[in-house]
């Protein structure tokens, strides 16, 4: 990664990017306390100082060389009297699973390290149309799995670079945690944006499947894939949702969203009280092999309790231990990993001059990082003809009905649980005990909120899931919790410059 940026004046250098928000930057621009060039300069300086130097977080794969020119254009527009757009001058990062025609799209793999798409993904165009400045493309687990790829290596946790940052949207999570940008876009198939949010003291929203267009995004499992925001504040997540949510004719799945997108998600943030809402806690693991006697398991369960108490103080009612017998078995039986080959081949056929044109040719290449060699096991599985896929879809419907029944019988608005049963491990390990698959299998929205730091000084998150199209309710809940608990902790490894 190479950074090249112009020297700024002393006044511009005084801009403080730490823990800034969309509203804060816009207020500073309106009052002329800063310029857009100064804003973008300050984030590029942090990337330069901390991402490849200092703690070596390795979150940014490629920096946008036009970012300062784009910032200067914003300053000229504002000087001419143009109004601010929703994301004007907001430093943004996107997971490099998402196509951009102005930066390489690598998918975290050395096989595509220099690949340049000729189109932008739908979400990129929506961000740019809203005024965002994409300062860089972020590191990810190779082909959207894990936390390491052959193109750029491991992501490193912003709170301790020796530890795992979760995957596969690890670079986006690390970049937002470390104040390399204000907002980020992750992708979530099996928890890939909620994991980095949990490991980064951040808010990570997985929307209802079909709410966000996936045009221009390499697929993993089309029945589960979605994009979503990762941010330091709930308000910023809501503003991003206003920009990226809704129907796109190039992605038929988004037709489900018609009639389910509010005029603005920010109206859900109007009250700090969530009186009248009711949430149930799931205590039992949602994956096999969890050591329920482990110290970190017990510590995380205590942090779930603390988060639930915070929701209670904000006005919600809490019902403990609402899980139903058979829940774990349904979650396990709902898994099907055979969608990738067909979906990827169809996707690659849409690209102009990709270095590889089939999934089969990709997965046999020895340059793929060893942690991704298991993807060969999915070759030859085709959902349209595979009985295992049909059975998994049947089980997902049964799981969906069970969750809705549990919520109905307990009069619940949402469910609370730990996204992970275990603490982040040291690299090159991956966090064990993931409970994030439940929402992906049934397509329900969920949000991870910060729960504080564990005894090792690493962030732990708690997940809240609700019914389809209830993103506004989840944002409202997270907002009330945030204002009361103030759970976000800034990493000490990347202080102000």
How many H/I helical runs? 15
CATH architecture: Alpha-Beta Complex
Count of spatially separate domains: 1
Widest β-sheet, arrangement of strands: 1-3-2-6-8-7-12-13-11-9-10
Question: Roughly what is the average pLDDT, rounded to an integer?
Answer: 94
Please state the CA-atom Rg, rounded to the nearest Å.
21 Å
| DSSP strand tally | 13
- Fraction of helical residues: 25-40%
Q: Can you say what the CATH homologous superfamily is?
A: Amidase signature (AS) domain
Shape type: globular
Instruction: Give the class-level CATH name.
Output: Alpha Beta
Unreliable spans are 1-13
Strand content: 5-15%
Please trace the helix and strand order, writing H or E for each element. Answer: HHHEHEHEEEHEHEEHEHEHHHHEHEEH
**Largest beta-sheet characterization:** 11 strands, mixed
What's the CATH topology label? Amidase signature (AS) enzymes
N→C terminal distance: 20 Å
Look at the helices and sheets and give the structural class: alpha/beta
